[in-house]
Amino acid sequence: MGESPSPAAGSQASAGADHGALMDPAADAPAAGERTVALVRSGGVVVEQIVSGVLDDPVDYLEDVHEWAVVLAGRAVVERGADRFELGAGEWILLPAGIRHRLVETAPGTNWITVRWPPD
After folding, report:
1. Which of 1, 25, 75, 113 has the fewest C-beta atoms under 10 angstroms from its C-beta?
2. Cα(85)–Cα(100) distance, rounded to whole angstroms?
């Protein structure tokens, strides 16, 4: 997805980790694109933080895992099939595995948490 920030900007954790720090969107968001850091990995589940800059162009995805994404701050526009979702702080979306979706727009500094897991 994006490049990883320096260790001071966010903590990458694995199974067994019990604390860490989130990236600061004001300091760590790229000017364009996204920066992603894995916070926790356990039993096939991955929790990530994503901070977004401006998108140069929409980004198309077709994932082999389910993804639940919540916007903590900022805003984004996501298309899933024929549906268009304008997400703001506190709003979330479920993106099932095998379903095409498109990230159309993000506001600079948009801060997300995602949870990804394999289908049953």
Report:
1. 1
2. 14
pTM over 0.70: yes
Q: What is the pLDDT of residues 54-72, one digit of tens each?
A: 999 999 999 999 999 999 9
User: Contact 9/24 with Cβ under 8 angstroms?
Assistant: yes
Which helix (H) or strand (E) is 28 found in, with range?
helix 25-28
**Cβ pair 80, 101 in contact under 8 A:** yes
Q: Which domains does the chain have, with CATH numbers?
A: 25-117 (2.60.120.10)
Amino acid symbol at 15: A
